[in-house]
Design goal:
Helix content: 40-55%
Number of helices: 8
CATH architecture of the largest domain: 2-Layer Sandwich
Strand content: 15-25%
CATH class of the largest domain: Alpha Beta
Radius of gyration: 50 Å
Strand order of the largest sheet: 2-1-5-4-3
């Protein structure tokens, strides 16, 4: 018995769910951080651009003194001389060395103002002061951007693990609940033995995959139960059939040995030989029956030629006549010896019950070939038309077994026909028995 692994389906599915969600959360977190940073940067740029534009308008209107009221603003001429600045920038060189020509300029600088550290975003716009071109620089601290990104990262670092724990727990419980019927089925099947094949696994009420699995498993158990019952019945019937000739042989030999002077040993030998022949024939049909559903490959077979060769043997015995007027050609895939066994068993059955004539017909269309063997005997009662194809069934149990057979010929024929994808049945007839065998002209997939 294999050791129980910790890496069960429940563990694998839970780990897979957590992994997929983790990848999604990491990707989503990266997108969220990027969006937050972009939005904050856009806000800082818009604020700086607005202050630069307002200051440029004031400078162009001659209200230079008003520029100092704006935070982090400079007015610089083309020579790089600071003409006006807000208190934080007084005494400092120009924020940018570049001139906003022909339009606004946006750059990032470090430590733009006294007493303030960190990065600043600077927007430069052109303006006019005393008919001379000047540049207006406005700066916005990027600390708010950094703080916002850090706060979002901290929140995600807490939220993502919590969500993964919740997802893992929910997946563990959900998968466990989903697999609970499977475990119930496993326990039930583990307890089933050959003595209680009538037991079945519990079927979930929902018609989902697990419900279909339970239904299929119960159908399999039903087939196993039927096969086991048939096997036991077959073993019992076979033992009974084999015991009869063995008992006859032993009885005759014991009588002969007990009275050797009064025994006709030649007659005893003939009788033992007859019973031995019966035993050999019965063993042969039992072996044939056990091989009826093997998996030997098919090959093209001319069914009409097999019929003709088997009919020749019946005619050679000379007991009954055989009518072949309804015989036509038919070629199909199959196992020649098995198909020959079907024909021989049907002819033997018909010869055993016929009064004077057997009629054999063979027809074929585009899909199937149909073999019909009929006799002019007593026929098969309607109630026995299905039973005659079961093992060891005889219509006249009291008749001599040498004449009546072991009741296996039609059972063998049915097994071979079904192994070839066909069927066999007894059809109603006015007189005598009429047996039909229908076989496909193409191999079954």
């Amino acid at each position: 018995m294999a050791a129980k692994s910790w890496f069960t389906i429940r563990v694998r599915l839970t780990a897979l769910a957590v992994l997929i969600v983790a990848v999604g959360l990491v990707a989503g977190s990266a997108i969220v951080l990027a969006l937050v940073e972009d939005n904050l940067l856009a806000g800082a740029e818009n604020a700086a651009r607005q202050r630069a534009s307002d200051t440029a308008a004031l400078v162009a209107a001659g209200a230079v003194s008003s520029t100092v009221d704006n935070r982090l603003v400079q007015v610089v001429d083309r020579g790089g001389r600071v003409l006006a600045a807000s208190p934080e920038l007084r005494g400092r060189p120009p924020l940018l060395s570049a001139w906003p020509d022909p339009g606004p300029l946006v750059e990032t600088v470090t430590a733009a103002a006294d007493g303030e550290s960190g990065d600043f975003l600077v927007v430069a716009v052109p303006s006019i002061m005393d008919d001379q071109p000047v540049a207006v620089y406005a700066a916005s601290s990027l600390d708010t951007v950094t703080d916002g990104v850090d706060a979002t990262s901290s929140a995600l670092l807490i939220a993502v693990p919590v969500l993964l724990v919740i997802i893992g727990a929910a997946s563990w419980l959900l998968v466990g609940r989903t697999l609970r019927p499977v475990e119930a089925m496993r326990r039930q099947v583990a307890e089933i033995t050959a003595d209680d094949l009538d037991r079945r696994v519990p079927e979930p009420p929902a018609a989902d995959e697990l419900g279909r699995l339970a239904s299929t498993m119960n159908a399999m158990l039903a087939r196993l139960q039927r096969a086991h019952e048939l096997e036991r019945r077959f073993a019992g019937d076979a033992a009974h059939e084999l015991r009869s000739p063995l008992a006859a042989i032993l009885t005759q030999l014991e009588v002969g040995l007990a009275h050797p002077a009064d025994t006709d040993w030649l007659a005893l030998a003939r009788s033992v030989h007859r019973e031995g022949t019966r035993l050999d024939r019965l063993t042969d049909v039992l072996l044939t029956l056990s091989r009826a559903d093997d998996h030997r490959p098919f090959e093209p077979v001319d069914l009409d030629e097999l019929v003709l060769s088997e009919v020749d043997l019946v005619r050679a015995r000379g007991r009954v006549a055989v009518d072949l007027s309804a015989l036509s050609a038919a070629r199909l895939p199959g196992r020649p010896e098995d198909l020959r066994r079907i024909i021989r068993n049907l002819l033997d059955n018909a010869e055993r019950h016929a009064t004077s004539v057997i009629t054999v017909g063979l027809t074929a269309d585009t899909t199937v070939a149909e073999l019909v063997v009929a006799d002019d005997g007593d026929g098969i009662p309607e109630a026995d038309r299905d039973a005659v194809f079961t093992r060891f069934h005889r219509l006249q149990p009291a008749r001599d077994r040498d004449t009546g057979g072991a009741g296996l010929g039609l059972a063998i024929a049915r097994g071979i026909a079904e192994a070839h994808g066909g069927r066999i049945w007894a059809a109603p007839s006015v007189s005598g028995a009429e047996l039909h065998v229908r076989l496909p002209l193409r191999a079954q997939q």
